[in-house]
Amino acid sequence: MGRNPVTWLGSPTFPDAARTALSDTQLRGNLRKATTTIRTKRAGVVAELDDWERLRLAGEAVKDDVLSNLDTYLEQLEAAVTERGGVVHWARDADEANRIVLDLARQESADEVVKVKSMATAEIGLNEALAEGGVHAIETDLAEVIVQLGEDRPSHILVPAIHRNRAEIKEIFASMPEPPESDEPRALAEAARRYLRRKFLSAKVAISGANFGIADTGSVVVVESEGNGRMCLTLPETLITVMGVEKVLPSWRDLEVFLQLLPRSSTAERMNPYTSIWSGVTPGDGPQKFHLVLLDNGRTQTLADEVGRQALRCIRCSACLNVCPVYERTGGQAYGSVYPGPIGAILAPQLSGDLTDPQAASLPYASSLCGACYEVCPVRINIPEVLTHLRAEVVEAKGKRTGEALAMSAAAWVFRDRKRYEAAQKAGSLSRFVARDGTLSSLPWPGSKWTDTRDAPAVPKESFRAWWRRNRG
Fold this sequence. Notes:
Helix content is 50%, strand content 11%. The protein has 23 helices and 12 strands. The mean pLDDT is 93.
């Protein structure tokens, strides 16, 4: 098995990337404006529903049922898709999924394919794998077009180009055959529309992700806001869908719950403008060849973790990103992963499967543990709980020879003996001589490991033990 591309090769650890991002005032301004707008609108549409909390509980229950019976529902989905003329492929990892999709594109003699916005295909690095095989993937979601033409990386699950403003987008679109005349939203959208229309009409193969797969009917569901996805799902002769195995739902009735939860949590809409649903192949209507690639890529491994598995409930709404104070100040690219923000901080390390990798191991620490992400999650993923769980696993993965482990061992040795403990308190009280206004902001190594990013109060001249002995002893 090759390296899992869910984290970007060569990315710095989160603290280093965040430090760079924090110095970019334009980025912080763009993020603050966008996230504030989205979360304010979301709060409004959520408040309209008296049963919102019951919907959240229902979503959580359905997802937990799926995770407890995943094998049964996936086999049911495979049988239903096959019965309706589709072909199901199983992919254990990114390499296998990419190979399947590339082979299918080659079977149709396609050197260019159009794509619906898809986190799963980004997770496996499909565009890069196709390019190596001589097939050019054209993103059709407006934000993904911006990212692709700008040779950039996405920074948000729902709005990949959230870090760009209108002037920057106009500059990126200057490479189009018919560039926009101004940076007005209408002009930018029209330029993208002209660029993409030719691609839609000429493509023989389309590739999509899936928001949901319905086990009892074999139906696949994609929700979107622009209509570009609908063009990909109906015009080409062949449709290839890459779906994470956790996206399956048992029945149509379950879909009703998520078609209320997802749009309100993501785009702050009561319903998605475009909800496309297809079941296999229908003669004379839409693509005449349908392939469903069921992707594992670390999900089975994540499922084995009783605490961490709740990350697989995620429906990719991005609500947690829009309320996270860390994300708002650093942006998504600082996470060095396809999945940014709070959900990325728990999902990416688990899918990567390697907590000895410094970049992946830094992600569970990319949080203040304020809990805002848990409060807005439509399927009630307790992200702070998983973050602290993964932090413990990161420490365990480091072993007992790290500086941190040695420091904890030394502290345990001091705490085991009253005299050693009191001597350490007296020594610590000397820190008041280097403190400013009662605060330690700059200590020599190894204390600098703490004060480089946070302050510490100076140790008082007299400990509570000493005070008690002097006054009450």
